[in-house]
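Researcher: Sequence recovery benchmark, item below. Answer with residues only.
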């Protein structure tokens, strides 16, 4: 019985082979199936290269055409510099199973990012700003329990909702302004207790709240100048009776002097105790 089944199977295989080899229909069918299999691999490789390009801020802004066939990737389109052209080629080469890259991208110094990439970039930037802002608002002790909503469009933050004191309204705006890439802040927060002292935080002594507010304003001023520091986050600020103390580390004497000048220029600061240390290990 088993022998009979084996003979039948072999006969079917031979018949199929003869059909494919000697008939146009069979050859066409085999070519179509083989072609679809190869196309699937080519499409998968094309998508991998596209995904890699989308992760690059330099490349995602431009329309680069990608065609993959049998492990050979051909790139066409335009970018503004030789550096971007080389980057595209290197990114494509780094994709697994890519054998060769035909980099036919043209360099055009006048090329501008595509409108679709600009719109998508702005949308992603707005979403990232909103996520970062919500995280900072939730972690701010002075704003916990307050009803604050943040909307972001074109990197402009609009704050709505209600807080208890004017200090909290100002604090929320300060937090929003400190988020990277924010252009401006529209503060439409309503205040439940407008008569509360500007520097008073509920449940906290007025003097301590003022000291904290002063320290926060110095930190915010330092943050706005973060590009001039190796690591502005390594600078700590404490406030007491209109005086601030700077501690932590900076990368150079120039940074130490700059931090003191920034602190001294903050409204309300009468004295600065600069205890910053200079460390080449600051990153």
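Model:
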């Amino acid at each position: 019985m088993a022998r009979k089944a084996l003979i039948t199977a072999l006969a079917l295989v031979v018949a199929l082979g003869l059909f494919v080899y000697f008939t146009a229909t069979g050859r066409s069918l085999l070519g179509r199936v083989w072609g679809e299999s190869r196309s699937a691999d080519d499409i998968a490789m094309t998508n991998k290269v596209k995904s890699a390009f989308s992760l690059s801020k330099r490349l995602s802004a431009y329309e680069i055409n990608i065609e993959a066939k049998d492990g050979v990737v051909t790139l066409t389109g335009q970018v503004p510099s030789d550096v971007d052209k080389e980057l595209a080629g290197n990114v494509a080469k780094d994709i697994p199973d890519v054998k060769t890259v035909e980099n036919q991208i043209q360099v055009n110094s006048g090329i501008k990012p595509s409108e679709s990439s600009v719109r998508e970039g702005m949308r992603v930037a707005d979403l990232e700003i909103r996520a970062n802002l919500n995280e900072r608002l939730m972690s701010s002790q002075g704003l916990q329990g307050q009803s604050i909503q943040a909307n972001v469009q074109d990197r402009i933050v609009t704050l709505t909702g209600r807080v208890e004191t004017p200090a909290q309204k100002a604090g929320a705006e300060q937090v929003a302004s400190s988020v990277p890439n924010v252009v401006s802040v529209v503060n439409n927060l309503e205040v439940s207790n407008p008569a509360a002292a500007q520097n008073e935080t509920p449940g906290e002594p007025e003097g301590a709240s003022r000291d904290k507010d002063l320290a926060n304003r110095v930190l915010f001023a330092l943050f706005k100048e973060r590009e001039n520091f190796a690591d502005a986050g390594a600078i700590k600020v404490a406030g007491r009776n209109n005086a601030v103390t700077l501690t932590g580390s900076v990368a150079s004497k120039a940074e130490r002097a700059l931090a003191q000048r920034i602190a001294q220029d903050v409204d309300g600061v009468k004295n600065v105790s600069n205890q910053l240390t200079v460390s080449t290990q600051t990153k």
